[in-house]
Design brief:
Length: 511
């Protein structure tokens, strides 16, 4: 049994078209599902919300055939007209901002402000993509041959596969799908197996707009399922580009499968992000920022601050201020406006937290605060601060929870070396007022991450900039800047408008 969606507090589920039992595959204008039945649980209570009938491999193949047919019509539509469709998607999301945000909080576990903010991010991405639809441009290049024109032409890839993770069950889809659509591609989306209701509700919004405009709903296809569906997408030669968000371990498997068929991969993998606090820091600003970056989303962002590097001159004051702030954090119902800390996403996440704490202790870590699970229903844990050697192996891994390691350093060079010493390279930040430190940090001998911030947290990236990281984070870039180029292929085109080519001496080609 799931939630009673007739109760007033759950009317938003009905508004999003969800029922107690739902089909989890949409393709060719049809909702289907002949795979396993899974239950979606609320992380706040571990009680069931609703069930979903996942896609079988046969369902997947039928949906891909429809998606392939739909893309042929979509890619021939002028880009500004495709932008108009995406604009309407943004408007539909605005109308469903609150109910979809509440669903994200209910099913994923992040607090309501973050759930609503995630939907707003997709809306903003729609706006970005609408503007882009009139700016997809190539170059006119100088030809060395007389009466010839050389230029770049950008065309759609065809179908873009998007595999997203539970921690951002809607926003990461938006980063990819909005750009892929205005670039002329169809989209096939596999959301996380533990957030299928968000996948279904979001798909309904996208496809309703397409169908209202007389377009095939199959241009946007969703396939709920487990690893077998993800593997099918990775191995499918009909999908030229696969965007995957998840762990480094699984990302390597996806990359191997896609590369084996000469497809393209866009990977957003794990992070092990550090904030450096220099001795000239604005302390209140730094404390607020570290708290937000380390505890936000219960430490389940890929951009969560996991390592705090503090100059020895301000170390004691920084730790004292942080410990005071941590004691004021109250865990609670993520759907309540007063809650600042929601639960971890699943019982597995909670077990991983507990196991991580045991490993930390075994490697000499000292728990300054937290380190325990909360005795209440749901997957709640205490935000945790740990003193430990930076050489400890656990520090170089990613525990997806609110665990912050703190370290002391003497020089900026030492801090940069520590920042760069982990396998991951997603986000990083420094807090300082010194221009020399700032420009060293963002320069060639500074941070090796894809996101290099100054006086702001590691989390909270803007859509206007390309999002992604280096090393074991995968090297992908999504959202802003020129990320759109990944969803298209470039052709160098040379036009002989003089109808004159050098003739081979002694050969008669006729009139």
């Amino acid at each position: 049994m799931g939630l009673d969606i007739e109760r007033p507090e759950y009317q938003f589920l009905k508004q999003l078209g969800l029922k107690s039992c739902n089909l989890g595959c949409y393709g060719g204008g049809v909702w289907r599902g002949s795979g396993p039945t899974v239950t979606s649980f609320s992380p706040a209570t571990n009680q069931p919300i609703a069930t979903v009938k996942e896609a079988s491999l046969e369902d997947y193949d039928q949906s891909l055939e429809a998606c392939e047919a739909g893309r042929k019509e979509w890619m021939l539509m002028p880009a500004p007209k495709r932008g108009e469709i995406v604009r309407q998607v943004g408007e539909a999301l605005r109308q469903n901002l609150l109910p979809l945000g509440r669903l994200i909080s209910l099913e994923m576990g992040k607090i309501l402000a973050e759930g609503i903010g995630e939907v707003q991010e997709v809306i903003d991405m729609c706006d970005f993509a609408v503007g882009l639809s009139r700016q997809i441009n190539g170059l006119i290049l100088p030809s060395e041959r007389p009466n010839h024109l050389m230029m770049e032409v950008w065309n759609p890839l065809g179908i873009v596969g998007v595999i997203t993770a539970f921690n951002f069950p809607c926003a990461v889809l938006g980063w990819n799908a909005c750009l892929a659509l205005v670039c002329g591609n169809s989209v096939v989306w596999k959301g996380a197996p533990t957030t299928p209701l968000v996948t279904i509700a979001t798909t309904r919004i996208f496809t309703q707009v397409l169908e209202n405009n007389g377009l095939p709903g199959s241009i946007f296809t969703c396939v709920c399922g487990g690893s077998e569906i993800g593997e099918a997408i990775a191995r499918d030669p009909r999908i030229p580009l696969v965007s995957f968000t998840g762990s480094t371990k699984v990302g390597q498997l996806v990359r191997n499968a896609v590369n084996a068929r000469f497809g393209k991969c866009l990977l957003e993998l794990s992070g092990n992000n550090a904030i450096i606090v220099m001795d000239d820091v604005d302390m209140p600003l730094a404390v607020r920022s570290v708290l937000f970056a380390a505890v936000g989303t219960a430490g389940q962002r890929c951009t969560t601050c996991r390592r705090l590097l503090v100059h020895e001159k301000v170390y004691d004051k920084m730790i004292e201020s942080l410990l005071s702030a941590y004691t004021q954090i109250k865990a609670g119902d993520p759907l309540s406006n007063e809650t600042l800390l929601g639960p971890l996403h699943s019982e597995v996440s909670k077990s991983n937290f507990e196991r991580g704490i045991e490993i930390i202790k075994s490697q000499g870590g000292k728990i300054l605060t937290g380190g325990k699970t909360l005795e209440r229903e749901g997957n709640y844990v205490e935000p945790t601060i740990v003193e430990i050697s930076h050489d400890s192996s656990i520090v170089h891994e990613e525990i997806f929870g609110p665990i912050l390691y703190v370290f002391k350093f003497q020089t900026l060079e030492e801090a940069i070396e520590m920042n760069n010493s982990v396998p991951q390279g997603l986000s990083s930040s420094i807090f300082t007022k010194n221009p020399e430190s700032i420009f060293k940090w963002i320069g060639p001998t500074g941070s090796d991450c894809g996101i290099v911030n100054v006086n702001i947290p590691t989390s909270g990236a803007e859509i206007g900039g390309a999002f992604g990281g280096e090393k074991a984070t995968g090297g992908g870039r999504e959202a802003g800047s020129d990320s759109w180029k990944q969803y298209m292929h470039r052709a160098t085109c040379t036009i002989n408008y003089g109808n004159d080519l050098p003739l081979a001496q002694g050969i008669n080609f006729g009139s």
